[in-house]
Amino acid sequence: MKTLTHHSIFLLILILFNGGNGFTQGINLSKTKQFPANITSSIEIFRDSTKTLTLEQIKTQHFKKHTKKYFVFPYSNDDYWVRFTLNNTETKFENWILMWTNPLAEQLDFYVPDSLNKGFLHKQQKIITSEREKKFIQEDPIFPFKLLPKQAKTIYIKLSSQRGHYGTIRLYTPEAYHKSRLDDFAGEGFLNGLIFFRLFLVLVLSFFVIKDLSFRLYSLYTIIRTFNYWGFLNIAGPLFTDDPDMAKKLDFLFYNSATLGAGLFILVAFKVHKFHRLYLYSIVMILVVNIFLNAIIFFDYQWYWLKGGAYLIIASSIYYIILNVYFTIKKTSFAKYYSILFIFGLCSTCLLYVRLLGWIEFQPIYMLSYYFFLAEFFFFIFFLGQIFKNTERNKLIAEQKLNFNLEQNARLKELDNIKTQFFTNISHEFRTPLTLLVGPIDDLQKKYPQEGIIAVMKRNLQRLQSLINQLLDLSKLEAGEMTISVEEVDLVPFFRQIFASFESLAQGKQIIFNHSQSHLQQFGKFDLDKLEKILTNLLSNAFKFTSENGRIIVRVDFKVVDEKGLINISVQDFGIGISSERLPHIFDRFYQIDDTNQRQHEGTGIGLSLVKELINFLEGKIQVNSQLGEGTTFHLTLPFVALNNPTENLRHLFVQENLISQELQEENIVTETEGQNVMLIVEDNADLRNYIGSIFGNDFQLMMAVDGEEGLKKSLEYIPDIVICDLMMPNLDGLGFCEKLKNDERINHIPVIMLTAKATLSDKLIGLGKGADDYVSKPFNREELILRVHNLVAQRQLMREKYAPIISDKTQIVEVVKELTIDEIFIQKAKSIIDKYLDKSEFDVDTFANEMNLSSVQLRRKLKAITNQTVTEFVRNYRLAIAADSLKRGIGSVSEIAYQVGFDSLPYFSKVFLERYGKTPSDWK
Fold first, then answer.
1. Rounded to 5 degrees, what angle do the CA atoms 755, 757, 759 make?
2. If we measure between CA atoms, which residue out of 577, 615, 619 comes closest to residue 594?
3. pLDDT of amino acid 837
4. Which domains are delineated in the chain?
5. Which residues lie closer than 8 Å to 481 by C-beta, 6 or more apart?
6. What is the rounded CA–CA span in Å between residue 606 and residue 587?
7. What CA–CA distance (Å, rounded) separates 799 from 868?
8. Distance (Å, rounded) from C-alpha 866 to C-alpha 873?
9. Mean pLDDT of 572-598
């Protein structure tokens, strides 16, 4: 009875203590209980969706009993209340510590009854920042309170946090808490030591040892991964701020970037775009969304952005794990050493978020995630040896490539030297026959001053001498035999003389040539020969690459300080320009900007190389700027010795204008002579074009074209009897011209002789394969070319004789040969059109030409070339052949047959029939 009374009194006290709200689940604290104690399974939970309820109002609400050893609160804007009752039955302890085991709780409010049980002690705890014990040790929210023996208290905890939470509530005695903290310091200190060691190691290795892009990207991933781990423990945020609101945002930034480094690594190191664009787009999209969420949270901290980040981390982790497995199976570069590390790290992150969202309610999942995190460390140490080995192998390969390149460069240099020496030797050999040619040509020019071909010969001989001299100069420079020979001179007239030598060339090409000098007079000592070669080469280059109606600007500036002078020269053209990939090579020996069959400009690749070598020899500098389609500018600086007063050794220069004679004017079409064959010469070199014309001028009417496009246009317009065509030409080369001509029905009968310096068998086969009728190699023999031309013309004449007589037998007329030639196909087509209009006396040349898809001139020229008949003769003779066949077979009367074949005048029909067959139509029957 006494026991019952004591229990009744105790129950009455509990009822009074709880304010009459019903009996809450009590947690008995006895001396046999082990501490720390997880009291999560004995708590009660209430969800406040209004976020407005006070403690007094909360006491009256119905709490839901919780039985699990952990709690999961979802992402939301609601408040969650936790209630539990502690009953100190037999323990000797009075001081207790409550711990909320989640460091990312945004705000906790602890309500504990005071010592008199008349009110509540309130403590608010936000994200822990400045009051932390250790910077790099996890700090969970705690609340110390008193609970005397034989005393019971009901405690309320309010959670205000939009982030999802997973955790427990633990009760400690002071001794147990301090012991637990010592264990935390030891365990987390060890882990942080590993983290700092790995971070330091990868940074040192990436900066000083392993200078590989993949490893440096992994170093970036390691940094992100480190702060990602610290963000989960609320270590990262407090490192940068003491403001709890800013700390929670920084924590989100770090832990939400868990897959950012992995995505960047896969995107760059694995070269994912080589597999499929889908991989590239998906990874870029994940990175963009990740960056967006990290940014938006600083301006709009809401639970749905936080939850979106959790979903993104899970989805991207799974996707990246699949990609890493796929790349490993495919044996993709780098996957072997890094994929396993990424898989462990991504699994660790993914499991944390899966647990946080409550998808898998498995309590040891946190420890599994922790083990994956540790496994990432240990496998990194294991693979570090493999990474070192791979790096050393790559270094060895790089060194081998470097040695190979050095050897190859040495061989190329040796080959270049051999090439230069060969050209030097052969140049010396060329000088003797050239010397023997110069004198006789000068004598011939004096004897026959009106002969234009002699001027052409002399000009090309001078060009050949110039090229040989350039090769010899290069040889002297390489051999170190070239010396500087200075002269005293007034440099201004010297430059003016060089400019004057290009005036006539500018006039001939209608190029605006502007040149200016900063001084009217400048005396100095300089090697004039080398200066002339430098400037002449640069100006020749500018004129070569500037089209008609273009512009060239040359500026010479003299700068003198005491006796030290500088000549600054700029040569600017507004021509075709040079592409950026070719620009670094323009000073290389034998390098040509245009090395295709459609070469717009001639060149040997010697001039600019010589300019560079000479400027270096004179201790000057040269730079070039160019933009494709806009032009090129050369800037050069040359030192010289300035003279204030000239001496008696001064060289006097006399400037003569228009030193270069005007080039021969070519004739486009020679005055037509009735019955004379027409020759088209397609050649971009004016001298050679005129020379070929001089060979055939007496036998052919001549037409000229400078490239394949113009040649094709003139072929269609004039239907020449024969074409002589060069292979290498601008715009459309000889092969392209020949192919288009032979595929055009209007002009495919025209014979083509291909003229080129490419004389190998393969070159000839290519030319003949494109439809060329003959192939002549440069330099050609005049008589050989004449014979080949006349042979082709004779073959065309035989072809005409073949088609000239019209077959009298109608059955033979319509008979088709098994393999028709191009000309036979054309004749068959012409006959079929005449058959279509056979009884139409009004059938004329224009109608015939339209039906054949030709102009009347083209039809006339083509029929004349094939049959040696005019259009009228061809139509009339074909009609007469049809009539003769019909009369022979007695198909009708003479008048009927005459009308059937298009003759509306019977006397005229009888007249022409008699002229054709030697009998009248009546006698023919």
1. 90
2. 577
3. 75
4. 24-177 (2.60.40.2380), 212-363 (no CATH), 483-642 (3.30.565.10), 678-803 (3.40.50.2300), 810-924 (1.10.10.60)
5. none
6. 8
7. 9
8. 13
9. 69
Supply the pLDDT for residue 810: 43
pLDDT of residue 651: 62
pLDDT digits (tens, 9 = 90+) for 515-572: 888 888 888 888 887 788 888 888 888 888 888 878 888 999 988 877 788 889 989 8
**Mean pLDDT for all residues in the chain:** 78
Continuous H helices in 480-557 = 491-500, 503-508, 528-544
State the average pLDDT over residues 693-709. 85
Strands 722-726, 678-682: pairing kind: parallel
For the sheet with 169-172, list strands across it. 37-38, 169-172, 95-100, 142-146
Within 8 A by CB and 6+ apart from 542, the residues are 552, 571, 572, 573, 575, 632
What is the per-residue pLDDT for 21?
43
Q: Which of 672, 692, 673, 674 is nearest to 682 (CA)?
A: 692
- Coil vs helix vs strand at 696: helix
* Structure-block tokens of residue 774: 């003959």
Lowest model confidence (mean pLDDT) among 165-179, 296-310, 893-907: 893-907
Peptide bond before 779: cis, by omega within 30 degrees of 0?
A: yes
| Spatial contact of 219 and 206, defined as CB atoms under 8 Å apart | yes
SS3 159: strand
Return the half-sphere exposure (C-beta side, CA atoms, 13 A cut-off) of residue 211: 5
Report the 3 state secondary structure along 111-154.
Answer: EEECCCCCCEEEEEEECCCCCCCCCCCCCCCEEEEECCCCEEEE
Residue 732, SS3? Answer: coil
- Reading the block at residue 244, the tokens are 């709890």
Is residue 601 within 8 A of residue 545, CB to CB? The reply is yes
- In this prediction, residue 296 carries a pLDDT of 93
Identify the H or E element spanning 912.
Answer: helix 906-917
Q: Which residue type sits at 378?
A: F
Structure tokens at 491: 């440099």
What is the model's pLDDT at position 818?
43
Is 234 within 8 Å of 139 (Cβ atoms)? Answer: yes
The predicted-structure confidence for 120-150, as pLDDT tens digits, reads as follows: 889 998 898 888 888 888 889 999 998 888 8
At 758 the pLDDT is 58
Residue 133 burial (10 A CB sphere; 0-12, 13-18, 19+): exposed
- pLDDT, tens digit, for every residue of 261-281? 888 888 887 765 566 778 888
pTM of the model: 0.47
Collapsing DSSP states into helix, strand and coil, what is residue 79?
strand
The pLDDT, as a whole number, for residue 97 is 93
Question: Is the Cα dihedral 254, 104, 313, 376 positive or negative?
Answer: positive
Q: Tell me: pLDDT of 119 over 90.
A: no
Concatenate the DSSP letters of all residues of 763-792 into one string: HHHHHHHTT-SEEEESSPPHHHHHHHHHHH
Element (H, E) at 105: none
pLDDT band of 647, cuts 50, 70, 90: low
Q: Which token pair is 672? A: 């037509």
| Mean pLDDT on 862-885 | 77
What single DSSP character describes residue 573? E
619 confidence band (pLDDT: 50, 70, 90)? confident
CA atoms of 322 and 317, how far apart (whole Å): 9
Q: Which residues contact 794 (CB under 8 A, 6 or more apart)?
A: none
E-only strand ranges, 33-102: 37-38, 44-48, 64-65, 71-73, 79-88, 95-100
For residue 803, which phi and psi values (nearest 5 degrees)?
A: -95, -5
Q: CA 766 to CA 545: how far, in whole Å?
A: 30
Rg of the chain over CA atoms, in angstroms?
50
Query: Are the C-beta atoms of 777 and 754 separated by less than 8 Å?
Result: no
**What is the rounded end-to-end Cα distance, in angstroms, of the chain?**
161
DSSP β-ladder status, 631-642 and 564-573 = antiparallel
